Fold:
Amino acid sequence: MIDRQKLNQNFQYFDKETIVEIIDIFFEEYPDRAEKLKKNIQDGDFAQLKFNAHSLKGVVANFQDPICFELARKLDEMAKNQQSSGLITVFEDLDRACTKLMDELTALKAEVSGK
Structure:
């Protein structure tokens, strides 16, 4: 769940159009990011998994969703330690959390854009 107070602080200097654009970029990029993570796990490619999980962690940090951030951090850490046990479960939890984040961002986008 988005921490709205922190999100507002994070985006306080952006105009509404920029906020909507940032949200739209996340919507556009997330499906590909999720597919890459899933493939990295299936292939046992810990180097790419670490890179992609770390990248996603940075992106979701912008939206101040502590659940998505923590799951991405955990996936990043597991990849760093080459810990394969439980990877798919963490990925699936992260994917569900990111789907909820996108629902919240859809509502936020409607608020911001007045639509």
